[in-house]
Amino acid sequence: MLRSSRSQRNMLSTSRSPTPAIPRRKWLRERRNFMNFSVRDGTAPSGAHTEPWTFVVVKDPDRKHQIREIIEEEEEINYMRRMGPRWVTDVKKLRTNWIKEYLDKAPVLILIFKQVHGFAANGKKKTHYYHEISVAIACGILLAALQNAGLVTVTTTPLNCGPRLRELLGRPPHEKLLMLLPVGYPSKEATVPDLRRKTLGEIMVKV
After folding, report:
1. 108: helix, strand or coil
2. What is the tens place of the pLDDT at every residue in 171-191?
3. Which residue ranges are recorded for the region named Disordered (predicted)?
4. Is residue 25 assigned to a domain?
């Protein structure tokens, strides 16, 4: 069970416990197989350990409002023309629309970019294997960490906003926006849709 936002906030403001040291094996000292690898230090696995992600943390109110303006402009077009009536009908039960006031209200916005490739020391392009899957896994670990800290967020994927947001935040062309997370403590007035989740029997197959 998650702690209340008040108790969690108190805990975060008073804790002084250092992060325990994590012993690491030396790569060249012993043989390894895939069972030796684990996520032990709070990071995510990635294809060939390329770590193809950039997390842009936005706190500045003016910059957050600029992000909101870009997203609302594109989202209005999405709802009116691009998404189609079936899509709009399917999300209607979630009470979503192109007005995104939470982008101003949230104290922090985290924009996660996938790096479709990297650069080697000599300046040549470096392949990033499975970059979208790798970044998606990293996003999942981040979501779990935020929830564990007593924070709340909502996963958003601003449709057709990526290039403008990338330019606004000064990110290079080889980075593509994958997800945006508004992050903060839950409001006292916050409500959550009572959505039915699939049962374990519906999502798991034993072979």
Report:
1. strand
2. 999 999 999 999 999 888 877
3. 1-23
4. no
Three-state DSSP class for residue 41: coil
CATH of the domain at 135: 3.40.109.10
Angle, CA of 147, 193 and 99, to the nearest 5°? 90
Residue 143 to residue 152: CA distance in whole angstroms:
9
Handedness of CA 23, 27, 32, 34 (dihedral sign): positive
Q: What is the mean pLDDT of residues 92-121?
A: 91
> Has residue 39 been placed in a domain?
no
Task: Identify the CA nearest to 103 among candidates 141, 58, 143.
Answer: 58
Predicted confidence (pLDDT) per residue in 118-171, tens digit: 999 999 999 999 999 999 999 999 999 999 999 999 899 988 999 999 999 999
Question: Are 154 and 138 spatial neighbours (Cβ–Cβ below 8 Å)?
Answer: no
Q: How many structural domains comprise the chain?
A: 1
The single-letter code of the amino acid at 55 is F
Stated pTM of the model = 0.77
DSSP per-residue letters across 49-82: G---EEEEEE--HHHHHHHHHHHHHHHHHIIIII
Rounded to an integer, what is the distance from CA 189 to the centroid of its chain? Answer: 24
Question: Tokens 């947001």 appear where?
Answer: 165
